[in-house]
Amino acid sequence: ALENFPLLMYILAAKTLILCLAFAGVKMYQSKKIEEKLKKEREEKLKTQVKKDD
């Protein structure tokens, strides 16, 4: 079984890398969506403030 050891380590490393990339991708996607939401809310607040000033 020792001759398969490097292959097993390679597969394990690949799995870990894929999981990390997937996790990072999800995090980036979520943060982008949250940023857009915050931006929209901020713009809405600015619009209401401008209306109040008039």
Automatic annotation (TrEMBL):
InterPro entries: SMIM11. Keywords: Membrane, Transmembrane, Transmembrane helix. It comes from Athene cunicularia (Burrowing owl). The chain crosses the membrane at residues 6-29. This is Small integral membrane protein 11. It comes from the Eukaryota. The keyword Transmembrane helix applies. Pfam families: FAM165.
